[in-house]
Design brief:
By secondary structure, the protein is of the alpha+beta class. It has helices spanning 2-26, 38-41, 156-168, and strands spanning 43-50, 61-69, 75-82, 88-96, 103-107, 121-128, 134-138, 145-149, 177-178.
Length: 188
């Protein structure tokens, strides 16, 4: 009797592991949008929601990302957010082209470290509205995810469309954390 239970439990455990591995393997590879017009992408974006991450742990509201083309090439990235105490936190980085126009690389490490490949992180635009009213950004491992918009809110239709596509792309949308946008700008 004890052996049967052990065999049954082992079979159940193996079945669960197989199903789990199959569902993980079933997720399609992350792909970026076919084309990104970098000039149209410049400007301010409001963070609508994100996967929680360690480098934004103190951000509570009014998170924005502003992109500016640099005269010497590349893109300046300025991320701002408001902390619980009302203080504005700012991170300034750089972006450079990756394999395609929609697969950029970003770094927030000092410029003197830019020769090190591991200071550059993938920044892939995986969804983009035709008129650039929203963008969804991630990377090949699906560890990070941001939904950005040109305004502090998204229409319910856009939200549904984004969520549906994210589910089709193998993302766990239950992990998304909504970002409060109060209308107080974090711009300087």
């Amino acid at each position: 009797m004890m052996v049967r239970r052990l065999v049954a439990r082992t079979c159940v455990a193996l079945s669960m592991a197989t199903l789990s591995a199959a569902s993980f393997a079933a997720a399609p590879p992350v792909t970026s949008v076919p084309q990104l017009d970098v000039v149209n992408y410049m400007g301010q974006w409001y963070e609508i929601s994100k996967y929680p991450n360690r480098f934004q742990k103190d951000c509570r509201r009014n998170t924005t990302a502003t992109y500016r083309a640099l005269p010497e090439g590349g893109i300046e990235v300025v991320n701002r957010c408001e902390q619980e105490n009302g203080k504005v936190e700012e991170a300034v980085g750089r972006a450079r082209p990756g394999k395609t126009s929609s697969q950029l690389e970003v770094r927030f490490a000092p410029s003197w470290l830019s020769f090190l490949p591991w200071v550059w992180a993938p920044y892939w635009v995986i969804q983009l509205a035709p008129d650039y009213r929203y963008a969804v950004v991630s990377e090949p491992d699906r560890e990070y995810l941001w939904i950005l918009a040109r305004s502090p809110t998204l229409s319910p239709e856009d939200q549904r469309d984004i969520m549906s596509k994210l589910a089709d792309q193998g993302y766990d949308t239950s992990k998304l954390q909504r970002t409060e946008q109060t209308g107080n700008s974090t711009q300087k």
